[in-house]
Each structure stands twice: as C-alpha cells, then as structure tokens.
C-alpha cells in the first residue's frame, strides 16, 4: 500500500512572509527617517543661509518668529571695539550693524546673536563675533539677552570681516530653526 504524500506545512511560509513584510516595513521607515532627517538638515541650512528668509528693509520693522527686528545703521572699517583698558581688535575689520529687537510674542524669549548672519555681494556668509559684541555693546548686550513680551533691546551686531569687505545684507533670526528676515544693507 502506498503512503499518501506528506503534507507540506504551511506555517514556515506564513512566518517567512510576516518576517519579510516586517523587514520591508523597517527598511521603508528607516528610509523615510533618513530622508526626513536630511530634509530637516537641509531646511536648517537654508534657514541659516537666508534662502527661506522674508524680505525686510532698513529702518522698517520686520518679524521673524517672536522677534521684530529693525536695522537702523551700519558702520564698517572699525579696527577695535571697547574702551581704553578692555577692548577687542579685529582680525580684518569690524562691521557694526545697529539693530533693535522687540519681543512681539507672549512669553519671554532669549535673543542669541550667534543665529545672525551677514553677507557680501559674492554671497559669502559671515558669523557674529560674540566676544567683540560684548565690548561694542558696553551699555547693553545682544548676546543671549532675555527679552520679555513687549520689550525691546538695542544693540550692535559685530561681524569681523576681511578689510575692504562690503556687506550687502543681514539675515536675522529668532532662532536657528526659523526662516529669518533678510535686510539689505545698501
């Protein structure tokens, strides 16, 4: 008498299919996460470089996030900032940008001068020299200054640039995560 053929067990195929679906799902989630992280990093770079910035004008208030910025002047060619006994010398020359920062939000916010960038005609990016800004802002500080709602602070953003550099714009940010507002300096 002939033995009936053995029945194949279905469970290994079912478990294998479930494992395959789980692996593909994890790969898809990982790809979305990595792609999303790259997009977030790209957006932050675009924010800091002013690519996403709104347009502003000198002597007119412009808002980014909870801060309203008014750029009121600029002076370049400054060799050092500070007083007779405490000062800082520029590597090249300092450009001082006068700005008023008003908190238009509903809670206290900290202004970080390190989030601010300046650009020349070739779109070269310059960062604030926070150490020099302490000397340039003897009466007040724009470095990590907490501003309560409705209050304003005035100060100078200090950029150490190569001698002869002509800054053409400044991009002002509430924080590194906001798009900013681009103000022409010419």
Order of helices and strands: HEEEEEEEHEEEE
What structural class should be given to the helix and strand makeup?
alpha+beta
Overall 3D form: elongated
- CATH level-3 fold name: Immunoglobulin-like
CATH architecture: Sandwich
Q: How many H/I helices?
A: 2
**If you average the pLDDT, what whole number results?**
83
Largest sheet: 5 strands, mixed
Strand content: 35-45%
Number of E strands: 11
Give a short synopsis of this structure.
Helix content is about 25%, strand content about 40%. It has two helices and eleven strands.
SSE inventory with pairings:
Layout: H1 11-49, E1 54-55, E2 62-64, E3 67-82, E4 87-103, E5 109-111, E6 117-120, E7 125-127, H2 130-136, E8 145-147, E9 152-161, E10 167-172, E11 181-184
Parallel strand pairs: 1-11
Antiparallel strand pairs: 2-3, 3-4, 4-9, 5-8, 6-7, 6-10, 10-11
